[in-house]
Amino acid sequence: MRGRGAGPLATAALALLVAFAAFPFAWALLASVTPEAELFRGGGVLPERWVADHYRALFATRDFWVPIRNSLVVAGTTTAFCVTVGGLAAYALARLDFPGKAPVLGLVLAVTMFPQISIVSPLFLLLRGLRLIDTYPGLVLPYLTFAMPLTVWLLVGYFRQIPPDLEEAARIDGATRWQALTRVVLPLAVPGLATTAILTFIYCWNEFLFALSFTLGPDRRTVPVAIALFRGQYQVPWGEVLAASVVATAPVAALVLAFQRRIVQGLTSGAVKG
Amino acid sequence: MTSERRFALALVAPALAAILLVAVFPLGWTVWESLHRHDLRMPWLGRPFVGLGNYAEILRDGRFRGAMAHTATFTAVTVALELLLGLFLALAMNRAFRGRALVRAAVLVPWAIPTVVAALLWRFLFDSQAGVVNAALTGLGATAEAPVWFVDGTLAWVPLVLADVWKTTPFVALLLLAGLQNIPGELYEAAAVDGAGRWGRLRHVTLPLLRPAILVALVFRTMDAFRVFDLVYVLTGGGPGTATETIALYTFNTLFQNLRFGYGSALSVTVFAVTFALAMIYVRALGTGPAGEGR
Questions:
Q1: What is the tens place of the pLDDT at every residue in B96-138?
Q2: How many cross-chain Cβ pairs, A to B, lie less than 8 Å apart?
Q3: pLDDT for position B190
Q4: CA torsion through residues A154, A160, A166, A172, sign
Q5: Which of B2, B116, B224 to mutate to probe the A interface, most A CBs <10 Å?
Q6: b/e per residue, A254-270, with b = 16+ CB within 10 A?
Q7: Are B183 and B217 spatial neighbours (Cβ–Cβ below 8 Å)?
Q8: What digits encode the pLDDT tens for the residues A35-75?
């Protein structure tokens, strides 16, 4: 089957699927530059004139840069922490021999499958007790629940792919374990670490339930929560909602398009989340 | 203890401590909380121990049964559609052709979009005033009167299911595509020599060898669909009434609208139990090697 071109039927079906995949976002992109009055007349394909009103309103009157900053801080901090701490653990789990290794791996896999909804109540009580509701740590801590097992699981897979001979050679040459790790293994693991960081960042950027549950007002809301809670006076302010949707999607879409090969590989080999 | 062991434990300890602290310990707390009556609206009642009282209430709770039925139906319909479409898409993508990178990029974008945004896009498409779906339906003369999708308990499922299929079929297709790429080409040649046609090769070579990948996709999608929250919260809010309320949304509403933490925690434990059962099926069926081992 491989090596042969797609038949006309398959090509047509693929074209249809690509159209189906691209249509909603393309439509939103178009609508986000259409004047509000024209939007509600409905039906038109191309706007009669293009406007940046919705984007302007988004930043001028809705302070949309606040949720963007919040999302960047929370997703960035979580990702940096998880890749560093999780990376060290993953190296040990992939390469070293120690008691309890199998149960730890099993635990990590099990936790990747935890439904968020089943721990949201104690996390709320815990964060409230620590006075961390509506703060950055109050989001980073809960985000570790899904980000940490995810990074460890993905990175174990990447570390296992690095040939052990190089590290052994370095050890024979007198390098300590730590030196072998930082000077030999880490540089080789950079692509895997980068892919893991991108995937973790995307999951954090898109996260909704915890961000909705552990923030109170607009000051600490992340992008998805801010968009979901957009309200107009009489009707849904579609122009602004769609402009915000485009802004929220832009960073992840850029990451995905730039690193699609790696992301597909990371997603399918360590597949733990849909 | 050897130095290697000490070194390994030192490396694993921080990540393990984080996982235990933010995931395992809270899970135990949820179970403990579910054995109490704890109403944040009435703090003066304290937090009396009620044993399995909350679980007894679940058994009598009609709204819970409704939410479970909605969730089960949603899961069955979306997972079936996603697997069929995903399999078809993977088979088509597995052939070498020009524009393959474009196809991969096009299917990756719905996956990467925040679920909240996906929900909003589909709400916009189905909006009664500004939506293109109604404009198309009336324009083509398919319906005399444009349906109002979100006030009808049955029609409201249409955008929900479509949005979920749109968002997650790519993930299924990529998982299955990875599985297809592991099937050695010689098997197809051998089957062709034996006189197997296109359909025969699909039935006797592709599908049996793709079984593990199909199973992985099936179980992950089932677990995810079962706990669907973001999509429903944003697209229909569970409405009209509670017609599209799923179990995760009902749990969230119990916790954060009604502030009934004891009962909400019992609902959480129920969601966990079902997910855990599904995960067990996965572990049984496939073993637990990470990253391409034992898959």
A1: 667 777 788 888 889 889 999 999 999 999 987 778 888 888 7
A2: 330
A3: 85
A4: positive
A5: B116
A6: ebbeebbebbbbbbbbb
A7: no
A8: 877 777 655 567 777 888 899 988 988 899 999 999 999 99
Q: What's the Cα-to-Cα distance from A62 to each of A53, A206, A207, A213, A235, rounded to whole Å?
A: 12, 20, 21, 21, 16
Q: Are A104 and B12 in contact (CB under 8 A)?
A: yes
Query: Torsions phi, psi of B46, nearest 5?
Result: 70, -150
Judge whether B131 and A42 are in contact, CB under 8 Å.
yes
Residue A104 host element (H or E): helix A101-112
Between A101-112 and B3-19, two packed helices, what is the crossing angle to 10 degrees? 20
The three-class DSSP label of residue B257 is coil
| Three-state DSSP class for residue B36 | strand
Contact A274 B220 (CB under 8 A): yes
Residue B239, phi-psi category: left (phi > 0), alpha (psi -120 to 50), beta (remainder): beta
Rounded to two decimals, the pTM is 0.91
**Which of B4, B6, B9, B11 has the most A C-beta neighbours within 10 Å, making it the best mutation to test the interface with A?**
B11
Q: Residue A6 gets which letter from DSSP?
A: P
| Interatomic CA distance for residues B35 and B295, integer angstroms | 39
Phi, psi of B39 (to 5 degrees): -115, 110
Say whether A249 and B112 touch across the interface (CB within 8 A): yes
Q: What is the DSSP letter of B49?
A: B
ipTM: 0.90
Question: Rounded to a whole number, what is the distance in Å from the CA of A235 to chain B's nearest CA?
Answer: 10
